[in-house]
TrEMBL record:
Cross-referenced InterPro entries: Beta-gal/glucu_dom_sf, Galactose-bd-like_sf, GH, Glyco_hydro_2, Glyco_hydro_2_cat, Glyco_hydro_2_N, Ig-like_fold, Ig-like_GH2
Domain Glycosyl hydrolases family 2 sugar binding span(s) in chain numbering: 38-196
Enzyme class, first EC level, given as a word: hydrolase
Keyword Transmembrane among UniProt keywords: no
Source organism per UniProt: Draconibacterium sediminis
Family: Belongs to the glycosyl hydrolase 2 family.
Secretion signal span: 1-24
UniProtKB keywords: Glycosidase, Hydrolase, Signal
Domain Glycoside hydrolase family 2 immunoglobulin-like beta-sandwich: from-to ranges: 200-290
Protein name: Beta-glucuronidase
One matching Pfam family: Glyco_hydro_2
Molecular functions per Gene Ontology: beta-glucuronidase activity; carbohydrate binding
GO biological process: carbohydrate metabolic process; glucuronoside catabolic process
Glycoside hydrolase family 2 catalytic domain sequence ranges: 292-567
Length: 595
């Protein structure tokens, strides 16, 4: 019993200890259920392409004091940007901008004596320095996860000003690093909220089925404040369930209870209203219960084998050519996945906004959450291990109560030869398992060879991945070397389930002017044939547990410079950026209907 208690306490302590880099705090969870005041809307900005704002101390908003004074910057009279939203798609001069933009927002507030106030950011890409009334609150690194600052005692009665320095310059030792195949949308890309709480509040909780069980919930609750010893009740009214416990002097309570739940599944995505009540706070959530595990070479959902009919999605509204963030954006992307016949969305290559995760769960689509650990990460840089851990903590902390999230993906296409890569990612896997033992943990690899019509699938990381997740682009980056149905597989862990996490090729919607059997014309026929061949190969792929086309919509990438066919878009979508169905779409749709 004693060791058990230590384990679950450790999970929370890890969350706290690795609170965002520098001094942002790890965000409280389930913001939507709290008392919030939105700071979304127009923010005034100063564009700072050469980085002089730091020296001028822009956050001080100096005003000239006497006739001979002048101040060489001002928010006043500057352009305004919509928050949330990326800056690149809002002003022409920012289209390809990678650098600093200073944001300013004025707000009025009055905090009552017994309340606390937090300033919460859903995400800022990539570095954020945050100032309140001229005083620095702290910094955060990482473009896709939430963070917060407590501003109780700092916020003034009446008018206050927040200034945020946002910098989306690529960093060699950043996550991701400098080279990636998607658009680097900068800015305050997700919601900004003030959150008011009681002095002691429910900061965090973990309520999910215990690994391997269909009716036992195992988890914990954590309070934050001065009155840490309290009575706790977890209520699930629909199940007539009221589970009572007490927090200890550190504010911890362990939970464990049984109930005959209707399980969440793609066919019936059942969610229950769950209330976590302490003496000083109540937080309501919608939580589903399901089990997901690997047994032998199969993936089981609620103890039944499931074939993962997936698709890759970037967090982009393709027709607007902008970062996706609203519930409407999420609906558009997820409806397209549903229409294709998917039961899983792989949200690449970074944690997407909460609208995506929550809406997918409501629609019965499982979610694959992924860290921005992509290709050329500098694993031997002394700062990288800490950044990896911070991002892992922030992602898991935010989404751990979402039963729709079935998979934590910790890396994509990193290379075994990169110094310290194996050590760093093995350690990260262990840390992820310590935070949450209920979901599958996966690494995606593309380092296999394909010769003599044989895939050699090897990588030390596969020993730490519950799925053999493979990115292969046979038919596009490599020509077929034999009949697809006669492809052979030489897999390092031959007993694990195999998931084809990326495959496909490019086509421009409506392009059929060149020969359909030549890649250089970006024809729909060529792409269609790749999918026909791939599906033929899947028929004889050992241990296949699912496939995931690259990808749903064409998306922006500055790497894609063919001016006739690409125009700055990666054209591997099954749908064009305007949602037009390419021929390959029908092939996948048909396949998913059959599976
Ligand atoms: C890689 C990578 C994707 C990329 C794709 C492509 O496998 O994971 O992010 O865009 O290849 O070449 O289109």
């Amino acid at each position: 019993m004693k060791t058990e208690v230590k384990e679950w306490m450790l999970v929370f302590l890890i969350f706290i200890f690795f609170a965002g880099s520098a001094n942002a705090q790890t965000a409280m969870i389930n913001v939507q259920a709290r008392k919030t005041t939105s700071l979304n809307g127009k923010w005034t900005v100063i564009i700072d392409p050469i980085g002089v704002g730091e020296g001028k101390q822009v956050w001080q908003e100096k005003k000239s004091q006497k006739k001979t004074d002048f101040v060489e910057y001002s928010f006043e009279g500057g352009p305004e940007l919509q928050v949330p939203g990326d800056f690149n798609s809002q002003l022409c001069e920012l289209t390809y901008f990678e650098g600093t933009v200073w944001y300013k927002k004025q707000f009025n507030y009055s905090v009552k004596a017994d309340k606390r106030l937090f300033l919460h950011f859903g995400a800022v890409n990539y570095l954020a320095d945050v100032y309140l009334n001229g005083e620095k609150l702290g910094s955060h690194e990482g473009g896709f996860t939430p963070f917060q600052f407590e501003i109780t005692g700092k916020v003034k009665d009446g008018s206050n000003t927040i200034v945020v320095k946002v910098d989306n310059k690529r960093l060699g030792n950043g996550l991701p690093g400098t080279g990636y195949d998607w658009f680097n949308y900068g800015g305050i890309t997700r919601d900004v909220d003030l959150i008011e709480t009681n002095e002691t509040f429910v900061e965090d909780y973990f309520i999910q089925l215990k690994k391997g069980s269909l009716n036992t919930v195992s988890g914990w609750v954590k309070l934050n404040g001065n009155k840490l010893k309290q009575d706790i009740v977890v209520k699930i009214p629909e199940q007539n369930l009221e589970y009572r416990t007490k927090t200890d002097k550190e504010g911890w309570a362990k939970l464990e209870f049984n109930s005959a739940f209707k399980l969440w599944s793609p066919e019936k995505p059942k969610l229950y209203k769950v209330m976590v009540e302490s003496e000083t706070d109540t937080v309501a959530d919608e939580i589903g219960f399901r089990s997901v595990e690997v047994q032998g070479n199969k993936v089981l959902l609620n103890n039944k084998e499931i074939f993962l009919k997936a698709v890759n999605i970037h967090e982009e509204n393709p027709s607007k050519a902008a970062r996706a963030y609203t519930a409407e954006d999420a609906g558009m992307l997820l409806n397209a996945a549903k229409e294709l016949g998917c039961n899983l969305v792989r949200l690449v290559h970074y944690p997407h906004n909460e609208n995506m995760v929550k809406q997918a769960e409501r629609m019965g689509i499982m979610v694959w959450d992924e860290l921005p650990v992509y290709q050329h990460i500098q694993f031997s840089d002394s700062l990288v291990p800490q950044k990896l851990e911070t991002m892992l903590n922030e992602m898991v902390r935010r989404d751990k109560n979402r039963c729709g999230v079935a998979i934590w993906c910790l890396s994509n296409e990193t290379y075994p030869g990169t110094p310290n890569r194996n050590e760093a990612l093995i350690e990260l896997t262990q840390k992820c398992r310590a935070l949450d033992s209920t979901r599958l943990i996966v690494h995606v690899i593309n380092t296999h060879g394909y010769n003599n019509n044989t895939f050699k699938v090897w990588d030390p990381l596969y020993n730490y991945s519950e799925l053999i997740a493979i990115n292969e682009y046979v038919g596009w980056y490599k020509p077929w070397q034999g009949k697809p149905s006669e492809t052979k597989w030489d897999v390092v862990c031959p007993d694990k389930p195999v998931f084809i996490s990326e495959f496909g090729g490019e086509a421009k919607y409506g392009s059929n002017e060149g020969p359909g059997d030549e890649a250089a014309y970006w024809t729909e026929e060529y792409q269609q044939q790749i999918y026909v061949n791939q599906i033929e190969m899947f028929g004889s792929t050992p241990n296949l547990c699912g496939v995931c086309p690259w990808l749903l919509f064409d998306y922006r990438s500055l790497k894609r410079m063919n001016q006739v066919y690409q125009n700055g878009y990666n054209r591997k979508g099954l749908l064009s950026e305007h949602g037009e169905k390419k021929r390959a779409w029908y092939i996948v749709h048909e396949y998913y209907k059959r599976k």
